[in-house]
Amino acid sequence: MSSACARRAMRRSDATLALALMLALAAPMAALGQECSADQADLRDADTTLRFQVEVVDDAGERAQGLMNRETLPKFSGMLFVYETPQPVAFWMKNTLIPLDMLFFDPQGRLTRIQSQARPLDETPIVGGDNVQYVLEINGGLAESLGIDLGAELRHPALSDPSWSCED
Asked: Does residue 131 contact residue 155 with C-beta atoms inside 8 Å?
């Protein structure tokens, strides 16, 4: 084999090795990006997918406390309220010090209502609807700035009958 042929063969071999390495590294990262976790809630629509770090509150005492008395909430963080069954829900901002967006979801995890910029300390009831099973509270104004719209889908291990499941 001539030295020119040997160099071409080595370049092809190096390129093949580099491609294989890139694919091997990308596969676990892609799989990691799709994993469900109890401390993460994912939202998606036709254009985008978002991930929030969440605290899950799934009993009456935790739901009653919510985000009261907190002075800050990191940007991509929130609180996920989980109800045992779909039901009418209403929230208030008593003792809540930061403005919040409240995202109300049906049993399949579809976003049915958004309450933007709920006012701190306001005791006026915020009605979410009659068929709500999940509520995600995030920083006030974030839903609009991120383009979150009605119909977006929620993914989290707590969803019992999701339109977007953790296995997808």
From this structure: no
Q: In a 3-state reduction of DSSP, which class is residue 130?
A: strand
Bridging pattern class, strands 126-139 and 77-91: antiparallel
Q: Is 145 helix (H, G, I), strand (E, B) or coil?
A: helix
Contact at 8 Å (CB) between 80 and 57? yes
Q: Quick one: fold of 37-155?
A: Jelly Rolls (2.60.120)
Distance between CA atoms of residues 158 and 86, nearest Å: 13
Per-residue pLDDT reduced to its tens digit, 84-99 = 999 999 999 999 999 9
Residues 6+ apart with CB under 8 A from 126: 90, 91, 92, 93, 102, 115, 118
Q: What is the pTM of this model?
A: 0.79
46-83 residue pLDDT tens: 999 999 999 999 999 999 999 999 999 999 999 999 99
Domain boundaries, the chain: 1-34, 37-155
